[in-house]
Amino acid sequence: MTPQYQIRADYDACTIVVYQAYSPAIADAALRAGHFVAPFSFHRMTWIKPSFMWLMHRSNWARKPGQERVLAVRITREGWEEALSRAVLTTADPAVVAQAAVHVQWDPERSPRGAALNHYSIQVGIGRHLIRTFTDDWIVSLTDLTPQIRKASTLMQTGHFTKAQRLFPTERTYPMPRTLEAVVSPVR
After folding, report:
1. 122: pLDDT confidence band, cut at 50, 70 and 90?
2. What phi and psi, each to the nearest 5 degrees, are found at residue 154?
């Protein structure tokens, strides 16, 4: 049985993949530069999600207006863990949340067909005072997953679920340091 609150992600010894959905203009500029540049906004929070399925639900498989392009953003684990160390749960005191550099929210994980599951996925909001560090120091690479997502979506719509699943990134339990578990866990 999957624990109720657990970070599942595609990661290796040095990096973790998080997902974001953008308009074509933002995605194209970022892919050309290898990191986020204008028209990406450096003046507002950006949300990163290690759950591929949650972002597929959120972006409606890259069909939602303004979210037609899905990027796999590979960042350093050092950066990921620094973000988590500075996080405040969005359920905390509103005054504390307002001052936090990073917000953490847990939302129901989703099945490939969009059904809510009985466990949660983490969403991490990088605040505007930390965005430059995220874009300039933590990002290792950007990959456009949009063609793969469109193919998987078509396969699912035509009843080829097993073939579609082969296109999903492999995610496994992320090894959280205990000190960070205490920061991001909604269960205390």
Report:
1. very high
2. -65, -45
Q: Is 88 in contact with 106 (CB distance < 8 Å)?
A: no
Q: 31: which 2 tokens?
A: 């892919």
Q: In 3-state terms, the chain is what percent helix, strand and coil (to 5)?
A: 35, 30, 35
Phi, psi for residue 134 in degrees, rounded to 5: -55, -55
Instruction: Name 94's Cβ contacts closer than 8 Å, sequence gap at least 6.
Output: none
- Report which of 86, 45, 60 is spatially closest to residue 180, judged by C-alpha positions: 86
pLDDT higher than 80, residue 187: no
Q: CA-CA distance, 134 to 79, in Å (whole number)? A: 7
Residue showing tokens 């590979």? 74
How far is the C-alpha of 71 from the C-alpha of 149, rounded, in Å?
A: 10
Structure tokens at 67: 């979210």
Residues forming beta bridges with residue 75, ordered by sequence position: 16, 139
**How many angstroms separate the CA atoms of 188 and 178, rounded?**
13
pLDDT at 51 over 80: yes
Beta carbons of 159 and 119 less than 8 angstroms apart: no
Read off the pLDDT band of 14 (50, 70, 90): very high
